[in-house]
What we know:
- With 359 residues, the protein is α+β, with helices and mostly antiparallel strands.
- The protein has 6 helices and 17 strands.
- It has helices spanning 6-16, 128-140, 165-172, 282-292, 296-299, 310-314; strands at 28-30, 41-46, 50-58, 61-69, 75-80, 93-102, 107-118, 121-122, 151-153, 157-158, 179-185, 193-197, 236-242, 249-254, 271-276, 327-335, 340-346.
- The strands form 3 sheets. Strands 3, 4, 5, 6, 7, 8 and 9 form a 7-stranded mixed sheet that branches. A 5-stranded mixed sheet has the order 1-12-11-2-10, with no helix packed on it. It has a 5-stranded antiparallel sheet with strand order 15-14-13-16-17.
- It is globular.
- The model is unreliable at 1-11, 200-213, 258-268 and 297-318 (pLDDT under 50).
Amino acid sequence: MTAISSASSSIISNTVLSRFPQFELSYETISHKKVSEPYDIALAIPMGKKYYVWWSYEGKRNVCYLMEITRDKRVGAIVELSIPVNQSMALGTVLYGTLVSVEPTGQPVFVIEDIFYYKGISIKHHTFSEKLGAIDNMFSDKLVSNTPTLAFALPLMWGDAILDDLQNKTRIDNCGYIVHHVQYRSLTQTVPYINMSAKPKTALSEQPASVQILEPIFYGIIPQFSYGKPQYKYPTNFVVKADVQFDIYHLFASSGRSSGGGGQDESNKSEVYCGLACIPNYEKSVFMNGLFRNIRENRNLDYIEESDDEEDFEDTRLDKYVDSEKTLVMECVFHKKFKKWVPVRLTPKGGVVVHISKL
């Protein structure tokens, strides 16, 4: 990252900080016991200095600032980033996270841990599921872009938070950055974040060359939906694909021409990306894992107490548990609060995927 002098930092601070939104960081606490409900998702929090990334304006210019957070949680040095800035993001968007460097290129990556403002609206008190929805929109609508100056990524996350220390360590050791601690959150309730220690690795150079930071798969720009359409009141069929990250599933509608019988003309069948499914609870997570992932703990909780066999332990592929090529047609219901579709059941053979025009 380009260095700045203390003088330039002071000038930027005086003109910018007066407009920076006032809020408190999410409350965190430390626990040495196994977590339980309502905690249903875990994040591998990187080791490193914390920053805000703030999209705003200066005069008539749309700008993006990288803002150092000091030990007393105040804003320190501020750098204006040379990255493209979307007009809607400049209404006021604030991310919180850690700046890491990816070897061997040294590419700076901002690992997003939280979001407090989105397009001028405070979402600090929203659920983590809703916050993930906002971050998903940022990527899928290309409101943020990765450049040599700075790239953006989500931390490693997993939904089966009941796993033991050994299983967590296996994931942590292959996530692509040095992990400071594991943080447990609730997807659907506003509760304190729980931090549990994670033994850090000594250096990035010890990682296998093939290890990369996990980023969700994005299939394209999500269309503008009309939530007032009748289809949102009824069970609806989507094509569903799993992401390498746990509890992340992608939904697709059809854009094929209708056939005379009311179905779809298979010769003109194509898919339109409709964003992420909502996985609102642990039971739904287990259900979806059973369809797309090979996780034996889902089939029998007794496996949690057993050690991984040597072959599984040495398999460091990030996608070893998921069938990324598998597609299923599933009936979903619309969750009004999250404005996302919740998978309910597999659609019987011959079920028609919803046409994008109905959404």
